[in-house]
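Input sequence (737 aa), recorded before submission:
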Amino acid sequence: MAAFLYRMGRLAFRRRWTVALVWAAVLAAVGLAGMTAPEAEEEPFSMPGIESQEAFDLMEERFPGAAADGATARVVFVSPNGEKVTAAENKKAVEAAIAELGDGAQVASIVDPYESGAVSEDGSTAYTTVTYKVDAAGLTDAGRSHLDESLEHARDSGLTVEAGGDAMQDMGGPSGTAEAIGISVAAVVLLITFGSLAAAGLPLLTALIGVGISLFAITALAGPLGLADTTSTVAIMLGLAVGIDYALFIVSRYREERAKGRAAQEAVALATGTAGSAVVFAGLTVVIALAGLSVVGIPMLTEMGLGAAGAVVVGVLIALTLVPAFLGFWPNAILTRKDRKARRAGGTPRETRKVNGGTRWASFVLRRPLLVLLAAVAGLGALALPMTDLQLGMPGDEALSKETTQRRAYDALAEGFGPGFNGPLTVVVDAKGTGDPEAAAETVSERIGGTEGVVSVSPAQFNESGDTAVFSVVPTTAPTDQETKDLVNTIRGDRPGIESEAGAAFEVTGTTAMNIDVSEKVQSALVPYLLVVVGLAVTLLLVVFRSILVPLKAAAGFLLSVLASLGAVVVVFQQGHGADLLGVETTGPIMSLMPIFLVGIVFGLAMDYEVFLVSRMREAYVHGERPAQAVTSGFQYSARVVVAAALIMIAVFSGFIGDSDAMIKMIGFGLASAVLLDAFVVRMAIVPAVLALLGERAWWLPKWLDRILPRVDVEGEALTRPAGPEAEPADKDLART
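Predicted structure, C-alpha cell format:
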C-alpha cells in the first residue's frame, strides 16, 4: 500500500498540470450535468415493511385519484376577544376565506368547518383542511403564494388565522450559512496550525473542489433517483469536514519531511505513502459506516449514507492526487517561515526532536495512565446516563419556533380541540369479500372508539367500490406522548378479536402511527447494524495495525463516545437543558433516525482519528521504539494535527446547528459533540492510557493470524531511507517548471 501510494504521489507531483486539468475537467463536467439536470421531484417518505406503510399503500390502491400523498394545509380560525366563530360576522369571514382558499389552481378539495362539525365545543376555534392535487414538493410558487395571500386576507377580518401541514413547509434548499461558518473557522484553525496562508489555504481549496464535485453529482442524480434535500446537506457536511482533514494530514506530513531535509518531490511521495495510507484506511472506515446504513432498510437513510460515502471517496481521491499536485506548484510556499528563511539562505533545514504540547500531554498520561483512564471513562459514563431516558419519535410542528404559523396553528388546535387532535390515527378497513362492508366498518369503528384513550372517531368514508373504508381516531394525548404509542399498540393488540367480530381486516396508519413504527424499526435495526459495521471496521483495523487489542480498544472507545454524545442530545433536545442557547424552543422525543445515523457517521469519524493517531505510534514502534516511547512519538507528530482536524470538524458540524430544519440541527449538534468527546477524551486520553497499561501486549498478534493477514505496510517501512543530499536532485525538476 505505502509503496503504491508513494509512486502515486511522486507521479502526481511530476505530472501536476495533467492532474490539475483532469480534476478541473471532472468539476466542469459534473457541474454542467448538475446545472442542466431537471429539477428533482422529491419522493414521499416511505418505510417498507411496517404496518403504517402497508396501510398507506392500500389506501393509494383502493382510493385511486384521491391524492393520498397530496399536500395538505390545515387552516385554523380563532375568534377575537372571547367571541365565537359561529357569530354571524365571524362565520361570514371564515366562509369567505374558505371560498378564496378553494379557488387555488392546485387545490383538490376543501372542507367547510360548519358542515363537517370542525368547531370546538366552546365555539372559539374552527378549522378547515385544504387538500392539494400534488405533494408538497410539487406545489408551485403560485400555489404557495395563493395560500399565503388567502391567509392574509382572512386575517384582515380580525380573526386569528394560522396554518400548518406539509403544504406550509419551506421547500428552499440550504442557505449556505452553515458551510460559510464552518469554512471560516476552519481557515482560522488552519492558519494557527500552519502559520502560513498558503498551507492553510491548500486544504480549504481542495476540500471545496471535492464538495463541489460531490454536490453537482448528487444534483445531477437527484431527479432520476428522487433524492431528498438532506442527501446533499449531509454530503456537504461530511465532504467538507473529511476533505479538509485528509488534505491537512498530507500537508502536515509533507512539511515534516521537508523539515528533515528531503527534496520537495521526495517529501510529497513519502507524505502520500505514509499519511496517504492512513487517509485511505480512515476513508474506508467512514465509507463502510455510511454505506452500511443501507442495511437498515430505510430508503431515506440509504440515500443519505450513500451520498455522504460518495463525498468521502471523492475527498480521499483528491487528497491522494490533487493535493500532491498542488504541492508541486507551491513546494516552498507552505513551509514554515523558519524553513523558508533557511532555504533562501542556502541552508538545508534539519528536524530536531523537540518537546511540544503533544509530548508533554503524552508524558502526563504515561505517568498516571490508570487515573486518566478511570477519569475519562467515568466522565463519558456520566454523560451517557441520560441515554436511559431516550425516547424516539419524529418531531412535528410542535418542535418549530413559536414565530412560525405552523407552531401557532398546532397550539391553537391543541387548545381548542385537545392535544390528541394534532396526531389523529387513520384506520383503513379492508372489507373486500365481506358480505356487509358497512356493518364491518361500523363494528371496527365502535370497538376502537370504545378503547380507553380515544376521544372520538370520525364517520367512515368508503371508496367507489365500497370495499374499503377509512376513518380517523383522535387520541386524548399528544402525538409524541408515550400514552399515544401505548394506544396504538393496544388497538393493534386487540385486532384479532375485532377482526373476528367484524369479519374484515384493518390496519392503523397516519403520521403518528408511521412515526411510532419507524422508531420501532430503527431500534430493532440498531444492533444488527452495529454488528455489521463494527465487525467490518475491526477487521480492517486488524489488518492495518496487526494487533488484536488495538482494534477492540478502538471499538470500545467508539461506543463510549457515541453513547455520551447521544446522552448530550437527550439532555438538550429531550430534557431541555441549554435548549434556548441552540434555538430549540420545544423539547420532545429524539428523532427516530438520529441514533442510527449518528452511530454510522461517528463510528467512521472516530476510526479516522484512531487511524491517524495510532498509525503514527505503530510506525514508531515498527521502526524500533519502545511502546511508551512510540506513544510519545505519535503524539509529538500527530497530536497538534489531530486537534486541528477535530476543531475543524466541530466547526463544520456546529454551523449546521443554526439550520431551521430540526433534523439537521440535531444532527449538527450530535456530530459536533461526538467529535469533541471522541477526539479529546477517547483518542487523546483513553487511547494513550490503555496503550501505556498494555505495553508490548498492545501490539500482540498470534503467529498463525500474522501469517494469513495481508500486509499493507501503512507505516511505510518499505519507504524508509536516509534524508539528505542524495534526495536533493529532485529539486531540479522545480527549477525547470
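Checked by second reader. The CA atoms of residues 376 and 681 lie 6 Å apart.
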